[in-house]
Fold each of these.
Amino acid sequence: MNSKERVLTTFNHEQPDRVPMWCGASDEFWLKAKNHLNLSDQDLRIRFHDDFRRVSAVFKGPSELSRQDATYVTPFGIERHGLGYGQPYTHPLADAALDEIHSYPWPVAAWNDITGIRAEAERYYSDYAILGGDWSPFWHDAIDLLGMENLYIKMLTEPEIVDAVLQHIMDYYLESSNNIFTAAADRIDIFFFGNDFGSQTGPLLDDSLFRRFMLPHIKNIVNLGHDFNLKVMMHCCGGIRALIPTMIESGLDALHAVQPSCYGMELAALKKEFGNHMVFNGCIDSHHVLIDGDPETVKKQTRAVLDIMMPGGGFIAGASHDTILEETPVENVLAMYDTILEYGIY
């Protein structure tokens, strides 16, 4: 099998020739690994046995959304400062009334340039599983706009405010992804989007609030992907065991970056309870194994994960974090992928 066949077989909950592999990495780790191994971008992906390739629109919004003094500015005008994508300094809709929410300068999907997506996907379509669609972090954008504690309070005291903010956010993301898929869905396999609903110690909101405020929007994302005959995979960090049944109800096909070190995320239980309904992607501990371990520890723990997760298919192996961080030793990452290649054979 080639990579595409391997991944799509896994999404059908059948056993491929071997467990597919996923590689998501921070820019800092990627540069370190390229220099360490003296490889190009494509050759490094091949060395890591990555079965996926990703295509994205290019954001070309107004110039004021790329301020030089901010680490990152979201499409919703939120300046973030600090490490990584930073943290928001202000929450412009924290005290907004409904009319102020509706009059807020919401972004438009046309700001995302999709002209190069089809050609980029075409380069890899025959051989690899292609990921596409807008990342759509609507939960995080709502937190940025309202403030996290304030958002929780308004879910209980002013739900119409939360509904209005989420709907404007989702109008943008759904139109953006619809434009991408209209242009290139026949060259994309998986709609990949992300929202972190968990912490190390459990979900960030209980199932009743998750159902009330998040589930309708996840369903809309899933339905959009399925309308274009795509599989749909959501990235979601943390201890989200209590939310997985509702995620399955939404129609999600796969859950990315399963974190076994978080509360409730014991792999054997997840596989037994949900493995017939959800493809699990990740599961190899990024922190305690890949960062803190050595190659022998990585090899041992990777084999243990394979023993639990690979029977019957429905498993994609990789690190339990969205991106492998810079402090991760390259030798440990090589040990992980080489172990999967050696012992992940069906």
Amino acid sequence: MRPLLAQIGAITLMNLKSVPQRLWLSLSTVLAIALVVVVLLTFLAMANGFQRTVKGSGADDVAVILRGGSQSEINSAIARDQVRLIDEAPGIARNAAGEPLTSAELYVVVDGVKRASGTKANVPLRGIGSQGAALRRDITLVEGRMFNPGAAEVVVGKGLISEFEGFELGRTVAFGTTRWTVVGVFAAGGGVFESEIWADLPVVQSLFNRNNYFQTVRARLKSPADIEALKAYVDGDPRLKLDAKTEAEYFAEQAAQTSDLIQKLGWPLAIAMAFGALAGALNSMYSAVASRSVEIATLRAIGFGVLPAFIGTLAESLVLAAIGGAVGALATYVVFDGFTTATLGASFTQVVFSFHLSPALIAEGVGLALVVGLIGGLFPAIRAARTPIVTGLQG
């Protein structure tokens, strides 16, 4: 009697060699599983890319201050008197002249037109002061110049230009009743700020009739640890009913909300499609067992055990599933990795980002494929193991 492993290897090899006899049925199983993996990995790559873009934009030594309870800038409001109090807070860095490194900002929604579809979508217009750009990492002008104070001029993130039309250097755009000239294009290291339009704060306040209000204040901290002193100061002054957190914390929360939603859409859809692929796998494997019933019975008659027949059949299903998973992962990588798009962020404005397919996500996709293969091969494998020798030889 052959050793167990030798028996398993022999039956597995026999099963795999017979796959060409059922080429189209096996191919349909592989393609169905590959499609499931493509759908899942596309959603996961989308969520991962969005999270990398948003979360990676935050700094540990910059504080973001919003109205108490606000989850995003669009829902926040900070009065001018509160800004003056924030300027006196402990832990905030100052320049050589002793001025606080803070930036009170206004964040409003304007219309943009998507290049791909020609439809309107919300894009963010941010009013910033002299410190606004300096408080952000990796900001560089790649074209043109910065806007002049008091002028109806804007600078536009290069990510926004890639997805929305009409914001190229030298173009004029209309927000409300005012026409603005695009005088510069800036990069932000691929971060979320590349999805924004920046203009002079007083001009934006005047246009939107918010002369005495802002929506957020950014502040450079002396060190990341000083966020605790700032939080204590904000919580301890009854005039400030505000929340303070590091920019890294703020963007991590923003990223989690949208990426979780994307994943909650992707997994149920992939699982629903997996049931269809599972039906195909079952059909293919039951057909394989039926076509090889004589071979299986003959092997059993000459001393092969039940377990090798079971494992050999299950191995075939897992191999087909692994091929489907690999094909799906490769297709997703080729088509979607690095693909740039825009989606609605937590502030109800578009965020431009690129899909990112990581090795960990590929492992999740292939893992789902193997689960489909395992379940799809389990019951046919049980049938192969339980087929009576006499019945198989008679077939």
Amino acid sequence: MKKLASIQQLLMRSRRMPWLVVALTLAILGGTIFVARQQLRSKVRDQIVGRDAEVLHAVAQMYLDETAKDDTAPDVGQQIFVMLKTSKLGGVMGARLFDAGGRFVEAFDKDVLEADANPADLPLLRKLRPVSRFYPAVRLSENFFLSDRKGADPVAPLLEVNVPMHARKSSRLLGVAQFLIEGESIAAEFARLDQHLTRQALAAFGVIGVILIVTLGWAFRRLHHAHEMLAARNHQLLQANQELSLAARTSALGAVSAHLIHGLKNPLSGLQSFVANRSADTQTDEDWEQAVTSTRRMQSMINEVVNVMREEESGARYEVTLAELAELVTARMQPLARETSVTITVRRDSEAVLPNRTANLVALVLVNLVQNSLQSTPAGKSVCLHFAETDEHLVCEVRDEGPGLPDELRQNLFAPCRSTRKGGSGIGLAISKQLANHLGAGLELKSSTSRGCIFALTLPLALCVGRSPMESVVRA
């Protein structure tokens, strides 16, 4: 939740984000309009240039039809005649006649230089389609003989139109008439077209841009308002979460402390009375040994709970695998195992990982259960700590090979001051039960027979934070 809050704050602080989005949107809009303008400009220019080609083609074909009325193929002379008549149209500066292969045949007038047709135009001409090309600036000396030229070579716009020559109702190309037309009028028309398209593009960009700016501005204001509300709610949730965490921690520590005091009250009172009324004639060293052992057990449990309290207060957070948890429990119980000549084995059929807070409380419970099992198991036998996993729970079982529990103790097994061991107070099972309840887990005596007892601590898998590589372990 803190990470989410930091992201929200970062977005709120980025004042340049709306401007960047608006600028990017306008750039995309401008690029789109520019590309559309260029495509439209190219198509309209092609239509303007091809317009004269279509007119000249129609006029030339009309003259050819009039010349060859008997449907015979017009010869070169007839083609030259048609070319000359067509050249009289306004704007034609000169003309050339090529054969079907694109080779020069004749030119009009005398100032037109000899040249061959462009090979790239022949495929379309053979299909009887006219071809036109516009040159914005071409040297006149490339097409005309300039006898009075002085100084620089004049440059002017030029339209080149190539018209196919063919007989009526025939698809065979007989020749090509090339007309050189002054291009000033087309250049002026192109300029007017560019101005018109530019004005339209700017108008479209302005209108759509204003609409986008207004829309994005409204959207960003709404988004900013939503971010402010979300940030405020996140802050409130964080405060509530901290308060609940503090309350839960205080409740947990209070519950542990209350049950610890309740469990220790009676045995400590009895021990105090025993010491006060002790008589050297009536008491033996065995009684003192039992008293000392019970006191040490209680003091050890107090220290363990206090250590958990301190770690809770420090706020430290880390993860504990089941292998580390099992190693912690067995390491603390190995001295007692050597003393009682009982073997501790560990089996893991789960790969769950616990947070340190949960692992610490689970360790307290398992240490108490293993300690009770070691003290109840005859020498040479074993106590098994088994971790298994079901669909929804992590099950921690402690199995011993002792004589089992009497039936009369099972009803109040987890009440303080109930124990089957001489000198025992039953405080370990009572605190373990309270710790399990605090975790939302269950602690029960799963079975008790003459071959041993099985205590099971069942935790919801929701308490786990992940998985670690699983290795089944059996430790002696």
Amino acid sequence: MPQATSLAYLPDTARLEWAIDTVLHAPDAMPLDLARLTQLEEAKRGEVCFTPHPAVRLLQSDFPIDAIWRAVLSRDDGAMGAVDLNAGPVWLLIHRTPFGVEVDRLSAWQWRLAAALFAGRPLHAALEETPSSETYAWLATLLASGCFTAISLSDRPFD
């Protein structure tokens, strides 16, 4: 569509739609049993690598694609007109809950920590890369939200 070439945000909005559809139709999986973390020796806890849930995705865009998506979905021309394309980047967590797919806006450091963990980086390395006084609270939120299904140590499954 030649008329769509001027809409620089359109490819990222399509990526968001794709991520939402992928999360919606991802296979079910049991979230990580958090008691498994307590079974680890304290010295090994930093070496934990997490396996992301199949119904979780991260997305970054230079445009407020979440606001665009919500405005289009609700057919709200006023909301669409209020979208500031120059507001800066957004970092998104797309995940399935019992109530449907949620699209949550994250801070840059929250996204970096989640991205490192979802990529299989050891916990100690992910925490070192995202210094914040709130990192442990954010990690607890990711764990409690069921964003992971398993853990491993040094690329070995932990049973």
